[in-house]
Amino acid sequence: MNYHLSTNSILTTIHAMAALQAIAADDDGRAVLAPVLNRSCPDMLAVMIRNAFADIAMGLGPLVLDIQLDDETASGPGAEGEDTGTATADMMLSVELLTPRTFTTSRHGIVRRALEQAVALTALQMWCMASEHGEGSSAEMAGRFGSVADEWLATLRSALEPTIYPTVRAGW
Fold it and tell me: No. of H helices and E strands in the chain?
């Protein structure tokens, strides 16, 4: 099954997660997240999103059949020379995953959302790790973002595994 993720949708998730983290963070932590919250680094965040997407896809190993990191078209919105009102154009990141034949539509939605969450959290982890404050608050935040990203990746893997047991029926 092909899953297409919007970088703008992932960016919205990144902003929300960074804002929640900043509420509980100390001054150093807020300093690390300030560029994300002020939306002053959209090009750097776009790179972090693409890198995080590649990282998540590599973590899924043999479940990945194909991947596309950049699906910008020269004639679409955000094409070179066009002013879209944003610093970066929305890009679609695509991955074809090996999925069980028995997948339902709702299960595909769960996989897509787990992909978005894992990518957003991994991008935030990378942001914090790359911070000039490489220790203390930024290292702790990177660890927390990475831990939750790992949980989403585990959820993703388990969602993609076919069930080896028959459906349990009422009364058994």
Answer: 5, 3
